[in-house]
Amino acid sequence: ESPLDVQRLREDFPVLEREVGEGTPLVYFDNAATTQTPKQVVEAITEYYYEYNSNVHRGIHQLSQEASVAYEEAHDRLAEFVGASGEREEMVFTKNTTEAENLVAYAWGLNELGEGDEVVLTEMEHHASLVTWQQIAKKTGADVRYIRVDDEGKLDMEHAKELVGPDTAMVSVVHVSNVLGTVNPVSELADMAHEHDARIFVDGAQAVPNRPVDVEAIDADFYAFSGHKMAGPTGVGGLYGKKHLLEEMEPYQYGGEMIRKVDFEDATWNDLPWKFEAGTPVISQGIALHAAADYLDEIGLDRISEHEEYVTEYAYERLSEIEGIEIYGPPLGEDRGGLVSFNLDGVHAHDLSSILNDYGVAIRAGDHCTQPLHQKMDIPASVRASFYLYNTRAEVEALVEGVEAAKNIFA
Ligand SMILES: Cc1ncc(COP(=O)(O)O)c(CN[C@@H](CS)C(=O)O)c1O
Q: Which fold has domain 6-30+300-410?
């Protein structure tokens, strides 16, 4: 049984009542790309623009005071949401996970990396991490190494032990793979990195929305996530960083809000986290992200995780019954994210996704921003169904029906 009252929760998401095509009920299974947004979050945005829209950072007038307090408290709330005791000083708001990766790659990587240094990634990294560190390594003369992924889509930890060593300066690893669903042993990798005085960056885009995350228990040096993947709005992401690291880092974007004193010769920087938030920040988005964190905590992330497992294992089982289906990632019974990526023999992923669209099922087909992983798996693309707190086992039947239909058409 699911621990959630899904029918009640679905009332918070009007878009889920949508019909597509010729009156076909929408089955939204593209949550790893972006989740839907509950009324409570939309109302937080509306309330901001109707009642206290203003620029932040302490204008003298009342609206600016109210907006500043709300924006600052949103940082404290998201820090708490991921287990950061340093509150706002350890929580930078970015545009998304990708910008968080770039912030650390530029503000930390450009200064800390050089010839002889190594950045250790994994073969399952998203482009937000893989391309970013690959290009920063080119700029600094550092080398990149990739921890192998085995046939079950899990990290080869023996290989990780070989790669992480005295030349390692940074380990950057995805917490939950957006393709395989693999949940990586990020605490173990953090220990390995720290044994060699290296830093670890954890990409939590597919973890923070779906399971309790405690950055201090992991001992992550940096941890990134996106608001739009956790029932929040687009345009805001979170970068957790250990306070002493953020304090040592120079900003990589300059302008208003991030400065303290400026003269014609030089400038000094504002306190954390504002030092890393140049210009007018993501005000309404950050305030809405606070509402999203409250919404998810009210349900309970452990219950959301349990519900996702309930739907995912059913989808895995039902798809496995279809001849010609190949499912990627760890087998059932292992801890995995709320998604199933697969291919149907003889049917290109894009053809399958368009048939599924005819059945009202919204899934993703392509490389999911992990082209090297697909090259390694020797597949041009994959189809991915990804679930969230508002999906049901009954919806999985529409997915199965669509796959069967595609099989009859194409295979
Ligand atoms: C593991 C992981 N890491 C980083 C990102 C980037 O998140 P942004 O909010 O776009 O910056 C994503 C977003 N993956 C989307 C778009 S490709 C998917 O369909 O899988 C992700 O899954």
A: Aspartate Aminotransferase, domain 1 (3.90.1150)
